[in-house]
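Revision sheet: C-alpha cells.
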Amino acid sequence: MKQLSRQILEQILELSSAGIVVVDACDPDFPVVYANPAYERRSGYSADELLVGRRLPLLSHGILGQHDVDQLQAALDQGESYEATFVDSHKDGSNWVSQLRVEPLYGPRGALKFFVLTLVPLSEEKRSGANVELRIMQREIKRARQELAKWDRREPVTGLLRYDYFLELAERDCRMGRRNGRDVAVMLLDVVDLDVYRQTFGAKAANSCLRMIAGQVSGALRRSADLCARADEHSLIALTLGQGIDEVRALAQLIAANVCGLGLHNPRGRHGRYIAVHIGVAGGKLNGKYTLEVAIAQAREDLLSRQPIHKGAIQA
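Predicted:
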C-alpha cells in the first residue's frame, strides 16, 4: 500500500468539515499541538492562539455541566477512548454542539503520546430530534411532579384532601362565592367510638373503616365544587357552595344512613354495636360577616350539641 506523504495528510485534515484537535498526552494540561481549520472556525480560536501550550479549551469551556467536563478529563487522565455529545463555547460566547470522539495515539514502543479529538457538528435535524426528546423528557418530569404534588395534597388513609390544603381551596372558593353572594355550607362528621374500634381490631382495620366512611362522603358530594378532607384522627369535614342549609342537612342524613348501612360491627362500642357518625351542619350566605371560619365554628358547635348515638340511631 502506498504511503501518503505528511503534506497530503495535512491537506486531508485541513479539508475535513469535522473539527480535529491533537493534544499532548504527556502534559497534564493536555496542551494543543495541532488544530485544523474546521476547529478554528467553530471555536473562534486561531491556530496561533491554540498552539501556545494553552490548556485544551474543551476542559474549561464545556457548558453541559461539570460532570461532563469531569468525564472528559477522566478519559484523558486514564488514556481511554471517549465519546459524547458536547456543548462547547465559542470564543465570542456563543455555543456549538458536536459529537465528540477522543482516541489515544501511541508511539512505536506503545507509549501514549497524543490524543486525537474529533468534533463532528450535529445537523439541525439531529439537534431538533435531541430537542424533541428533551422536551418530552421535561414534560414527563413535569407530569410526574404534578402527580406527586397531587398525592402530597391527599391524606393517605382516606384518599381525601389534607386539611391544610382543604382550607386553602375552601378559602379560594369562598372568596369567589362571596362576590357572587352564594351560600356556603360546612359539614363536620365525627366517627363515633372509632377509638374503641381501633383498640378492638387494630389500626389497620380502623383505617379501613375510616376509608369506607370517606367513600360514602365523597360519593355523596358529587359536584365539582364540593370539597372533602380528613379533619383529624376520627373526623371528616366537607364544604359545599350554592346549596341551602336544608339541602345540606338532607345530604347529611343520607350520609349518616349510608354509613350505618355499611354494618361495621363495633362490639365494644360505648354508644352502639355498629359504627355510626354524627354530623354537625352550618351554613349561610357568604358576606363580610359570614365567612368560612364562622361556618366551620358553627358546624363544630352543632356537632358538639348532638346527643350520643345509641344502637345505631341516626342523627344529623
